[in-house]
Amino acid sequence: MDTFTLAATSFTIALSLFITGKMDRLQKSFAVLCLTVFISQAAAFLKGLIAAGFWNHLEHLGLLAIPPAVVFFSRMLTRNESFLSKGSATVVSLISVAGAVSQFTPLGTRSGFHLSLIAYICMVLGVCYFSLLYHVNRLSPSTEKRRLSYLLFACSAAAFICLVDLSAYLGYHFAPLSGLVLSALLYFTLLIVAYPQLSELHHFFVRALVIVVSTLTGAAIIYLVSFFFSGSPPSFTSVFMMSFLIIISITPVKMMLKNMFNALYPESKDVFTSLYEFDEKLEKEKALMLAEMAPVFAHEIRNPLGSIKGAAQCLQSEAATEEQGQLLKVIIEEVNRLNTVVSQFLDYARPASSKIRSRDINAIVLRTISIIAANRMTGNVAIFQELQEGLPQVDIDEQQLLQVMINISLNAIEAMPRGGDLTYKTSQIQTGKGPAVDISIQDTGNGIRPENLKDIFKPFYTTKESGVGLGLAICRRIIREHGGSIRVKSIAGQGSIFFIQLGARE
Q: Could you say which architecture CATH assigns to the domain 277-349?
Protein backbone atom coordinates (compact mmCIF):
# COMPACT_ATOMS: atom_id res chain seq x y z
CA MET A 1 0.00 0.00 0.00
CA ASP A 2 2.92 2.31 0.75
CA THR A 3 4.35 1.83 -2.76
CA PHE A 4 0.91 2.17 -4.35
CA THR A 5 0.32 5.46 -2.50
CA LEU A 6 3.54 7.00 -3.84
CA ALA A 7 2.81 5.76 -7.37
CA ALA A 8 -0.72 7.12 -7.36
CA THR A 9 0.33 10.45 -5.82
CA SER A 10 3.13 11.04 -8.32
CA PHE A 11 0.84 10.16 -11.23
CA THR A 12 -1.91 12.46 -9.94
CA ILE A 13 0.50 15.39 -9.56
CA ALA A 14 1.97 14.85 -13.03
CA LEU A 15 -1.51 14.59 -14.52
CA SER A 16 -2.71 17.75 -12.76
CA LEU A 17 0.26 19.68 -14.19
CA PHE A 18 -0.11 18.35 -17.73
CA ILE A 19 -3.85 18.94 -18.07
CA THR A 20 -3.57 22.61 -17.09
CA GLY A 21 -1.73 23.23 -20.38
CA LYS A 22 0.04 26.30 -18.93
CA MET A 23 3.32 24.88 -17.68
CA ASP A 24 6.67 26.64 -17.68
CA ARG A 25 9.97 24.74 -17.84
CA LEU A 26 10.11 24.36 -14.07
CA GLN A 27 6.66 22.77 -13.89
CA LYS A 28 7.42 20.54 -16.88
CA SER A 29 10.61 19.29 -15.24
CA PHE A 30 8.71 18.54 -12.03
CA ALA A 31 5.96 16.73 -13.97
CA VAL A 32 8.60 14.57 -15.69
CA LEU A 33 10.19 13.80 -12.31
CA CYS A 34 6.80 12.72 -10.96
CA LEU A 35 6.30 10.47 -13.99
CA THR A 36 9.63 8.72 -13.39
CA VAL A 37 8.63 8.13 -9.76
CA PHE A 38 5.26 6.80 -10.92
CA ILE A 39 6.84 4.35 -13.40
CA SER A 40 9.26 2.94 -10.82
CA GLN A 41 6.72 2.67 -8.01
CA ALA A 42 3.90 1.31 -10.20
CA ALA A 43 6.23 -1.38 -11.51
CA ALA A 44 7.39 -2.18 -7.96
CA PHE A 45 3.77 -2.58 -6.91
CA LEU A 46 2.76 -4.72 -9.91
CA LYS A 47 5.75 -7.07 -9.74
CA GLY A 48 4.35 -8.35 -6.46
CA LEU A 49 1.08 -9.24 -8.17
CA ILE A 50 2.14 -10.41 -11.63
CA ALA A 51 5.16 -12.21 -13.09
CA ALA A 52 8.11 -10.23 -11.77
CA GLY A 53 10.47 -10.37 -14.79
CA PHE A 54 9.10 -7.55 -16.95
CA TRP A 55 8.02 -5.38 -14.04
CA ASN A 56 11.40 -5.79 -12.37
CA HIS A 57 13.12 -4.41 -15.49
CA LEU A 58 10.58 -1.57 -15.73
CA GLU A 59 11.11 -0.67 -12.07
CA HIS A 60 14.87 -0.46 -12.62
CA LEU A 61 14.38 1.69 -15.72
CA GLY A 62 12.12 4.01 -13.74
CA LEU A 63 14.64 4.24 -10.91
CA LEU A 64 17.45 4.99 -13.40
CA ALA A 65 15.36 7.78 -14.93
CA ILE A 66 14.91 9.52 -11.57
CA PRO A 67 18.50 10.92 -11.17
CA PRO A 68 18.58 12.81 -14.54
CA ALA A 69 15.06 14.09 -13.88
CA VAL A 70 16.08 15.27 -10.40
CA VAL A 71 19.17 17.06 -11.74
CA PHE A 72 17.18 18.77 -14.49
CA PHE A 73 14.48 19.82 -12.01
CA SER A 74 17.13 21.16 -9.60
CA ARG A 75 18.69 23.24 -12.36
CA MET A 76 15.28 24.71 -13.23
CA LEU A 77 14.49 25.32 -9.56
CA THR A 78 17.73 27.26 -9.04
CA ARG A 79 17.45 28.98 -12.43
CA ASN A 80 20.76 27.39 -13.49
CA GLU A 81 22.56 29.44 -10.84
CA SER A 82 23.87 26.58 -8.69
CA PHE A 83 27.00 24.46 -9.16
CA LEU A 84 24.97 21.93 -11.20
CA SER A 85 25.87 22.55 -14.85
CA LYS A 86 24.80 21.03 -18.15
CA GLY A 87 27.85 18.82 -17.85
CA SER A 88 26.53 17.45 -14.55
CA ALA A 89 23.20 16.61 -16.16
CA THR A 90 25.01 14.93 -19.07
CA VAL A 91 27.19 12.82 -16.76
CA VAL A 92 24.20 11.66 -14.70
CA SER A 93 22.25 10.86 -17.88
CA LEU A 94 25.14 8.77 -19.23
CA ILE A 95 25.41 6.87 -15.95
CA SER A 96 21.68 6.13 -16.06
CA VAL A 97 21.91 4.95 -19.67
CA ALA A 98 24.83 2.69 -18.75
CA GLY A 99 22.79 1.32 -15.86
CA ALA A 100 19.80 0.71 -18.15
CA VAL A 101 22.00 -1.30 -20.51
CA SER A 102 23.73 -3.23 -17.73
CA GLN A 103 20.48 -4.52 -16.27
CA PHE A 104 20.09 -6.73 -19.34
CA THR A 105 23.54 -8.24 -18.70
CA PRO A 106 24.60 -10.71 -15.99
CA LEU A 107 25.43 -7.67 -13.84
CA GLY A 108 21.75 -6.74 -13.70
CA THR A 109 20.78 -10.12 -12.30
CA ARG A 110 22.93 -9.80 -9.20
CA SER A 111 21.16 -9.35 -5.90
CA GLY A 112 22.95 -6.10 -5.11
CA PHE A 113 21.93 -4.35 -8.34
CA HIS A 114 18.70 -2.94 -6.90
CA LEU A 115 20.46 -1.72 -3.76
CA SER A 116 23.10 -0.06 -5.96
CA LEU A 117 20.36 1.83 -7.79
CA ILE A 118 18.91 3.09 -4.50
CA ALA A 119 22.38 4.22 -3.38
CA TYR A 120 22.88 5.96 -6.73
CA ILE A 121 19.56 7.82 -6.40
CA CYS A 122 20.32 8.82 -2.80
CA MET A 123 23.73 10.15 -3.83
CA VAL A 124 22.24 12.27 -6.65
CA LEU A 125 19.48 13.51 -4.34
CA GLY A 126 22.13 14.52 -1.79
CA VAL A 127 24.10 16.45 -4.41
CA CYS A 128 20.94 18.22 -5.59
CA TYR A 129 20.03 19.05 -1.99
CA PHE A 130 23.40 20.71 -1.38
CA SER A 131 23.10 22.45 -4.73
CA LEU A 132 19.80 23.98 -3.60
CA LEU A 133 21.31 24.84 -0.21
CA TYR A 134 24.22 26.58 -1.95
CA HIS A 135 21.80 28.54 -4.13
CA VAL A 136 19.60 29.60 -1.20
CA ASN A 137 22.60 30.81 0.83
CA ARG A 138 23.63 33.04 -2.06
CA LEU A 139 20.20 34.65 -2.39
CA SER A 140 19.48 37.99 -0.77
CA PRO A 141 16.50 38.07 1.62
CA SER A 142 13.40 37.68 -0.56
CA THR A 143 10.20 35.72 -1.02
CA GLU A 144 12.00 33.21 -3.25
CA LYS A 145 14.65 32.56 -0.60
CA ARG A 146 11.99 32.03 2.04
CA ARG A 147 10.02 29.59 -0.15
CA LEU A 148 13.10 27.56 -1.11
CA SER A 149 14.16 27.45 2.55
CA TYR A 150 10.83 25.84 3.37
CA LEU A 151 11.49 23.24 0.68
CA LEU A 152 14.96 22.51 2.11
CA PHE A 153 13.45 21.96 5.55
CA ALA A 154 10.74 19.69 4.11
CA CYS A 155 13.36 17.61 2.26
CA SER A 156 15.44 17.24 5.43
CA ALA A 157 12.40 16.17 7.48
CA ALA A 158 11.32 13.68 4.80
CA ALA A 159 14.82 12.18 4.59
CA PHE A 160 14.97 11.76 8.36
CA ILE A 161 11.57 10.05 8.54
CA CYS A 162 12.40 7.76 5.59
CA LEU A 163 15.38 6.46 7.57
CA VAL A 164 12.83 4.58 9.69
CA ASP A 165 12.23 2.22 6.76
CA LEU A 166 15.94 1.42 6.65
CA SER A 167 15.71 0.20 10.24
CA ALA A 168 14.29 -3.04 8.81
CA TYR A 169 17.82 -3.96 7.76
CA LEU A 170 18.89 -3.64 11.41
CA GLY A 171 16.16 -5.95 12.66
CA TYR A 172 13.59 -3.31 13.63
CA HIS A 173 10.21 -3.47 11.97
CA PHE A 174 7.90 -0.47 11.77
CA ALA A 175 4.98 0.27 9.49
CA PRO A 176 6.37 1.53 6.16
CA LEU A 177 6.26 5.32 6.03
CA SER A 178 8.48 6.33 3.12
CA GLY A 179 5.70 6.17 0.51
CA LEU A 180 3.37 8.42 2.49
CA VAL A 181 6.17 10.81 3.48
CA LEU A 182 7.49 11.12 -0.09
CA SER A 183 3.93 11.62 -1.32
CA ALA A 184 3.56 14.52 1.10
CA LEU A 185 6.94 15.90 -0.03
CA LEU A 186 5.89 15.76 -3.69
CA TYR A 187 2.66 17.57 -2.88
CA PHE A 188 4.55 20.23 -0.89
CA THR A 189 6.96 20.67 -3.81
CA LEU A 190 3.97 21.07 -6.10
CA LEU A 191 2.82 24.01 -3.96
CA ILE A 192 6.28 25.58 -4.23
CA VAL A 193 6.46 25.06 -8.00
CA ALA A 194 2.92 25.79 -9.14
CA TYR A 195 1.77 28.43 -6.64
CA PRO A 196 4.34 31.26 -6.35
CA GLN A 197 1.73 33.41 -4.59
CA LEU A 198 2.18 31.25 -1.47
CA SER A 199 5.04 32.98 0.31
CA GLU A 200 4.54 32.55 4.03
CA LEU A 201 4.95 29.37 6.05
CA HIS A 202 1.43 29.60 7.41
CA HIS A 203 0.10 29.56 3.82
CA PHE A 204 1.57 26.09 3.39
CA PHE A 205 0.42 24.99 6.84
CA VAL A 206 -3.14 26.04 6.06
CA ARG A 207 -3.07 24.12 2.77
CA ALA A 208 -1.60 21.10 4.49
CA LEU A 209 -4.18 21.38 7.28
CA VAL A 210 -7.03 21.36 4.75
CA ILE A 211 -5.61 18.21 3.13
CA VAL A 212 -5.06 16.50 6.50
CA VAL A 213 -8.54 17.35 7.82
CA SER A 214 -10.18 16.28 4.53
CA THR A 215 -8.15 13.05 4.52
CA LEU A 216 -9.05 12.25 8.14
CA THR A 217 -12.71 12.97 7.45
CA GLY A 218 -12.69 10.73 4.39
CA ALA A 219 -10.80 8.01 6.28
CA ALA A 220 -13.30 8.13 9.13
CA ILE A 221 -16.23 7.78 6.69
CA ILE A 222 -14.59 4.86 4.83
CA TYR A 223 -13.66 3.18 8.11
CA LEU A 224 -17.17 3.49 9.56
CA VAL A 225 -18.85 2.29 6.35
CA SER A 226 -16.47 -0.69 6.15
CA PHE A 227 -17.12 -1.54 9.79
CA PHE A 228 -20.89 -1.25 9.34
CA PHE A 229 -21.08 -3.52 6.29
CA SER A 230 -18.29 -6.03 6.91
CA GLY A 231 -17.68 -5.85 10.63
CA SER A 232 -13.95 -6.20 10.05
CA PRO A 233 -12.63 -2.98 8.47
CA PRO A 234 -9.09 -2.76 7.02
CA SER A 235 -6.24 -1.18 8.95
CA PHE A 236 -6.56 2.52 9.59
CA THR A 237 -3.24 3.16 7.80
CA SER A 238 -4.60 1.63 4.59
CA VAL A 239 -7.83 3.58 4.91
CA PHE A 240 -5.91 6.80 5.57
CA MET A 241 -3.75 6.33 2.46
CA MET A 242 -6.83 5.49 0.39
CA SER A 243 -8.55 8.65 1.58
CA PHE A 244 -5.45 10.74 0.87
CA LEU A 245 -5.35 9.48 -2.71
CA ILE A 246 -9.02 10.27 -3.21
CA ILE A 247 -8.65 13.81 -1.84
CA ILE A 248 -5.67 14.78 -4.02
CA SER A 249 -7.18 13.08 -7.10
CA ILE A 250 -10.48 14.95 -7.07
CA THR A 251 -9.21 18.18 -8.64
CA PRO A 252 -7.20 16.73 -11.58
CA VAL A 253 -9.94 14.21 -12.39
CA LYS A 254 -12.53 16.98 -12.29
CA MET A 255 -10.37 19.18 -14.56
CA MET A 256 -9.88 16.31 -17.01
CA LEU A 257 -13.62 15.54 -17.13
CA LYS A 258 -14.41 19.22 -17.50
CA ASN A 259 -12.10 19.55 -20.52
CA MET A 260 -13.58 16.40 -22.04
CA PHE A 261 -17.18 17.47 -21.49
CA ASN A 262 -16.49 20.99 -22.77
CA ALA A 263 -15.09 19.48 -25.97
CA LEU A 264 -17.96 17.01 -26.46
CA TYR A 265 -20.80 19.09 -25.00
CA PRO A 266 -19.98 22.83 -25.15
CA GLU A 267 -23.34 23.67 -23.54
CA SER A 268 -22.60 21.64 -20.40
CA LYS A 269 -20.33 24.18 -18.70
CA ASP A 270 -22.50 24.34 -15.59
CA VAL A 271 -22.26 20.60 -14.98
CA PHE A 272 -19.16 21.08 -12.81
CA THR A 273 -20.46 24.11 -10.96
CA SER A 274 -21.03 23.20 -7.35
CA LEU A 275 -24.57 23.56 -6.09
CA TYR A 276 -23.18 25.82 -3.37
CA GLU A 277 -21.71 28.10 -6.06
CA PHE A 278 -24.93 28.56 -8.02
CA ASP A 279 -26.13 31.41 -5.80
CA GLU A 280 -22.84 33.26 -6.29
CA LYS A 281 -23.00 32.63 -10.05
CA LEU A 282 -26.56 33.95 -10.22
CA GLU A 283 -25.54 37.05 -8.27
CA LYS A 284 -22.76 37.75 -10.77
CA GLU A 285 -25.16 37.30 -13.69
CA LYS A 286 -27.66 39.67 -12.08
CA ALA A 287 -24.91 42.22 -11.49
CA LEU A 288 -23.86 42.05 -15.15
CA MET A 289 -27.47 42.42 -16.28
CA LEU A 290 -27.93 45.37 -13.93
CA ALA A 291 -24.79 47.02 -15.30
CA GLU A 292 -26.15 46.70 -18.85
CA MET A 293 -29.63 47.96 -17.98
CA ALA A 294 -28.58 50.85 -15.74
CA PRO A 295 -27.53 53.38 -18.45
CA VAL A 296 -30.74 52.77 -20.45
CA PHE A 297 -32.83 52.99 -17.29
CA ALA A 298 -31.14 56.25 -16.25
CA HIS A 299 -31.50 57.79 -19.71
CA GLU A 300 -35.20 57.00 -19.94
CA ILE A 301 -35.85 58.55 -16.50
CA ARG A 302 -33.55 61.58 -16.68
CA ASN A 303 -34.96 62.88 -19.97
CA PRO A 304 -38.54 63.32 -18.68
CA LEU A 305 -37.22 64.56 -15.34
CA GLY A 306 -35.25 67.25 -17.17
CA SER A 307 -38.35 68.29 -19.05
CA ILE A 308 -40.42 68.41 -15.85
CA LYS A 309 -37.78 70.48 -14.06
CA GLY A 310 -37.43 72.89 -16.97
CA ALA A 311 -41.17 73.40 -17.21
CA ALA A 312 -41.48 73.90 -13.43
CA GLN A 313 -38.68 76.49 -13.41
CA CYS A 314 -40.35 78.32 -16.28
CA LEU A 315 -43.72 78.33 -14.51
CA GLN A 316 -42.09 79.33 -11.20
CA SER A 317 -40.89 82.60 -12.69
CA GLU A 318 -44.45 83.34 -13.81
CA ALA A 319 -46.32 82.09 -10.73
CA ALA A 320 -49.36 84.24 -9.96
CA THR A 321 -49.47 83.49 -6.23
CA GLU A 322 -46.98 82.50 -3.52
CA GLU A 323 -48.79 79.17 -3.04
CA GLN A 324 -48.23 78.26 -6.71
CA GLY A 325 -44.57 79.21 -6.37
CA GLN A 326 -44.18 76.92 -3.34
CA LEU A 327 -45.83 74.01 -5.18
CA LEU A 328 -43.49 74.47 -8.14
CA LYS A 329 -40.53 74.64 -5.74
CA VAL A 330 -41.59 71.26 -4.32
CA ILE A 331 -41.69 69.84 -7.86
CA ILE A 332 -38.14 71.07 -8.58
CA GLU A 333 -36.81 69.74 -5.26
CA GLU A 334 -38.37 66.32 -5.86
CA VAL A 335 -36.97 66.21 -9.39
CA ASN A 336 -33.51 66.97 -7.96
CA ARG A 337 -33.97 64.20 -5.40
CA LEU A 338 -34.96 61.71 -8.10
CA ASN A 339 -31.92 62.74 -10.12
CA THR A 340 -29.78 61.99 -7.08
CA VAL A 341 -31.40 58.57 -6.74
CA VAL A 342 -30.71 57.80 -10.40
CA SER A 343 -27.07 58.95 -10.02
CA GLN A 344 -26.57 56.71 -6.99
CA PHE A 345 -28.21 53.82 -8.81
CA LEU A 346 -25.77 54.30 -11.70
CA ASP A 347 -22.84 54.44 -9.28
CA TYR A 348 -23.91 51.13 -7.79
CA ALA A 349 -24.84 49.32 -11.02
CA ARG A 350 -22.10 50.18 -13.48
CA PRO A 351 -18.47 49.20 -12.91
CA ALA A 352 -16.41 52.31 -12.27
CA SER A 353 -13.17 52.86 -14.17
CA SER A 354 -10.47 52.57 -11.54
CA LYS A 355 -7.17 54.44 -11.52
CA ILE A 356 -5.18 52.09 -9.33
CA ARG A 357 -2.01 53.59 -7.92
CA SER A 358 0.24 52.83 -4.97
CA ARG A 359 -0.95 55.13 -2.20
CA ASP A 360 -0.31 55.99 1.44
CA ILE A 361 -3.46 55.18 3.41
CA ASN A 362 -2.68 57.70 6.16
CA ALA A 363 -2.59 60.53 3.60
CA ILE A 364 -6.06 59.57 2.33
CA VAL A 365 -7.41 59.37 5.89
CA LEU A 366 -6.02 62.84 6.66
CA ARG A 367 -7.62 64.18 3.51
CA THR A 368 -10.93 62.64 4.56
CA ILE A 369 -10.64 64.28 7.98
CA SER A 370 -9.98 67.70 6.42
CA ILE A 371 -13.06 67.39 4.19
CA ILE A 372 -15.27 66.20 7.05
CA ALA A 373 -13.98 68.88 9.43
CA ALA A 374 -15.07 71.56 6.96
CA ASN A 375 -18.63 70.19 6.92
CA ARG A 376 -21.13 72.34 8.78
CA MET A 377 -22.71 69.20 10.30
CA THR A 378 -19.66 68.60 12.51
CA GLY A 379 -20.37 71.44 14.93
CA ASN A 380 -20.61 69.29 18.08
CA VAL A 381 -18.48 66.39 16.83
CA ALA A 382 -14.89 65.97 18.05
CA ILE A 383 -12.59 64.29 15.52
CA PHE A 384 -9.67 62.12 16.67
CA GLN A 385 -7.01 60.22 14.76
CA GLU A 386 -4.71 57.31 15.70
CA LEU A 387 -2.65 56.61 12.61
CA GLN A 388 0.14 54.03 12.71
CA GLU A 389 3.33 55.25 11.10
CA GLY A 390 5.30 53.33 8.50
CA LEU A 391 2.31 51.56 6.93
CA PRO A 392 3.02 49.72 3.66
CA GLN A 393 1.70 51.17 0.41
CA VAL A 394 -1.68 50.00 -0.86
CA ASP A 395 -2.74 49.73 -4.52
CA ILE A 396 -6.04 51.61 -4.67
CA ASP A 397 -8.09 54.20 -6.52
CA GLU A 398 -7.69 57.20 -4.22
CA GLN A 399 -10.94 58.92 -5.23
CA GLN A 400 -13.01 55.77 -4.75
CA LEU A 401 -11.55 55.05 -1.31
CA LEU A 402 -12.08 58.70 -0.39
CA GLN A 403 -15.72 58.30 -1.43
CA VAL A 404 -16.07 55.27 0.85
CA MET A 405 -14.60 56.96 3.92
CA ILE A 406 -16.53 60.20 3.42
CA ASN A 407 -19.78 58.25 3.03
CA ILE A 408 -19.16 56.29 6.25
CA SER A 409 -18.08 59.48 8.07
CA LEU A 410 -21.21 61.40 7.06
CA ASN A 411 -23.38 58.50 8.22
CA ALA A 412 -21.51 58.54 11.53
CA ILE A 413 -22.10 62.29 11.95
CA GLU A 414 -25.81 61.86 11.20
CA ALA A 415 -25.91 59.17 13.90
CA MET A 416 -24.65 61.76 16.44
CA PRO A 417 -27.24 64.58 16.25
CA ARG A 418 -26.30 65.78 19.75
CA GLY A 419 -22.57 65.52 19.11
CA GLY A 420 -19.98 62.92 19.99
CA ASP A 421 -16.56 61.52 19.03
CA LEU A 422 -15.48 60.44 15.56
CA THR A 423 -12.23 58.44 15.60
CA TYR A 424 -10.06 57.29 12.68
CA LYS A 425 -7.49 54.53 13.20
CA THR A 426 -5.06 52.76 10.88
CA SER A 427 -2.86 49.74 11.55
CA GLN A 428 -0.95 47.00 9.77
CA ILE A 429 -2.17 43.41 10.16
CA GLN A 430 -1.29 39.98 8.81
CA THR A 431 -3.87 37.88 6.98
CA GLY A 432 -3.86 34.54 5.21
CA LYS A 433 -3.10 36.41 1.98
CA GLY A 434 -0.19 38.39 3.40
CA PRO A 435 0.20 41.90 4.90
CA ALA A 436 -2.81 44.21 4.95
CA VAL A 437 -3.84 47.64 6.21
CA ASP A 438 -6.82 48.02 8.51
CA ILE A 439 -8.82 51.27 8.66
CA SER A 440 -11.45 51.80 11.33
CA ILE A 441 -13.98 54.65 11.62
CA GLN A 442 -15.69 54.77 15.02
CA ASP A 443 -18.50 56.97 16.28
CA THR A 444 -20.32 57.31 19.59
CA GLY A 445 -23.75 57.77 18.07
CA ASN A 446 -27.06 55.93 18.16
CA GLY A 447 -25.64 52.68 16.85
CA ILE A 448 -27.44 50.10 14.75
CA ARG A 449 -30.03 47.70 16.04
CA PRO A 450 -29.05 44.00 15.86
CA GLU A 451 -31.97 43.14 13.57
CA ASN A 452 -30.82 45.82 11.09
CA LEU A 453 -27.11 45.04 11.23
CA LYS A 454 -27.20 42.17 8.75
CA ASP A 455 -28.99 44.23 6.08
CA ILE A 456 -27.11 47.55 6.06
CA PHE A 457 -24.97 46.65 3.03
CA LYS A 458 -27.95 45.49 0.94
CA PRO A 459 -28.98 47.76 -1.95
CA PHE A 460 -31.97 50.03 -1.27
CA TYR A 461 -32.07 49.12 2.42
CA THR A 462 -32.25 52.16 4.68
CA THR A 463 -33.63 53.23 8.04
CA LYS A 464 -33.54 56.93 7.12
CA GLU A 465 -36.73 58.71 6.15
CA SER A 466 -35.15 60.37 3.10
CA GLY A 467 -32.42 57.83 2.38
CA VAL A 468 -32.02 55.82 -0.82
CA GLY A 469 -30.14 52.90 0.74
CA LEU A 470 -27.32 52.71 -1.79
CA GLY A 471 -24.50 54.47 0.04
CA LEU A 472 -23.13 51.50 2.00
CA ALA A 473 -23.88 49.11 -0.87
CA ILE A 474 -21.64 51.26 -3.09
CA CYS A 475 -18.97 51.30 -0.36
CA ARG A 476 -18.96 47.51 -0.15
CA ARG A 477 -18.79 47.15 -3.93
CA ILE A 478 -15.79 49.52 -4.15
CA ILE A 479 -13.90 47.74 -1.36
CA ARG A 480 -14.59 44.31 -2.88
CA GLU A 481 -13.38 45.52 -6.29
CA HIS A 482 -10.12 46.44 -4.53
CA GLY A 483 -9.85 42.90 -3.16
CA GLY A 484 -10.59 44.05 0.40
CA SER A 485 -13.35 43.59 2.94
CA ILE A 486 -15.62 45.84 4.99
CA ARG A 487 -17.52 44.95 8.14
CA VAL A 488 -19.23 46.70 11.02
CA LYS A 489 -19.65 46.25 14.75
CA SER A 490 -22.33 48.20 16.52
CA ILE A 491 -24.16 48.44 19.83
CA ALA A 492 -27.47 50.27 19.83
CA GLY A 493 -27.16 53.47 21.86
CA GLN A 494 -23.35 53.30 22.10
CA GLY A 495 -22.02 53.67 18.57
CA SER A 496 -20.61 51.83 15.57
CA ILE A 497 -17.19 50.88 14.16
CA PHE A 498 -16.63 50.26 10.46
CA PHE A 499 -13.54 48.20 9.59
CA ILE A 500 -12.00 48.37 6.12
CA GLN A 501 -9.26 45.89 5.26
CA LEU A 502 -7.08 46.24 2.15
CA GLY A 503 -4.20 44.10 0.96
CA ALA A 504 -0.82 45.84 1.14
CA ARG A 505 2.50 45.55 -0.66
CA GLU A 506 5.20 43.49 1.00
A: Orthogonal Bundle (1.10)
